[in-house]
Request: fold
Amino acid sequence: MPAHPTDHAGLEMLPLDECLRLLASVPVGRVGLHADGEVVVLPVNHVVDGQDVIFRTAPGSKLSAAEAQSLVVFEADHYDPESRTGWSVLVNGHAEVVYEDAEISLLDSLGLQPWADAVDRPFWVRIRPTSVTGRLIPGSSASMADVPAARSAESTSSVNGTAEFGVFNVLRREASHIRSTPFGEVGTVFSGRGMELAWVSKHGEPVDENWFSSHEVDVMLVIQGQLKLEFESPSHPDCVLGVGEVLVLPAGTRCRAYRWPRDAGQPTIFVAAYPASRQVPATSPAS
Reply:
């Protein structure tokens, strides 16, 4: 039985919060607009800020549409051709250029970098929705965008310590094994030969009141969003890690970690490496 009402075509109609969550779960969408008398559809990598879609651009048709506060559409989707499952979300709204310095500074902190970097894209564009609609093929899991390709251990890595060839896209949350915890999703990429490598996706879960510490060194690399760390010892000031920054956490250091800002529109994703023999509690930054 479908979890949501269906339309005339039999597709499930998703509520707003589910649409926004799915939009934030994929890195690329498509912007549709009028340019020089034609309808143009262009791919952009984006983030979600509240209910708004945010992307960066250079001078051109997208910037001109935003400067005129034109009506645009934005679409993102995810599908699996083998299982014939998938979803699509469509946003109708007005595009506008962000000019306020304070808002630009906040957007800069999100760590969104255009994939095409041959030309600088210094302008931030915000799409303010007038409507948001989403459709899900019945039988799909609405959370499939969170874990689009959890792969089997037979095709990637082995728990007996013998590594097999495998490629994982961490931004798409691919892993050999994925588990949910109260403080984020954890995808194990490799476990064996004395080490474990995993990614952690934090969506805004509650901040743990307890402190985590490890008997071994823990290394964390942020690849999307920002990660805030608080330390019990006053000798270690709290810090916020951005994309590309690595934290080397000494053994015995008591801390806790969570997505920052707390109301950010996209999950914070980081990669953690630590000894495979360690029993990782649910309160760990790598949990």
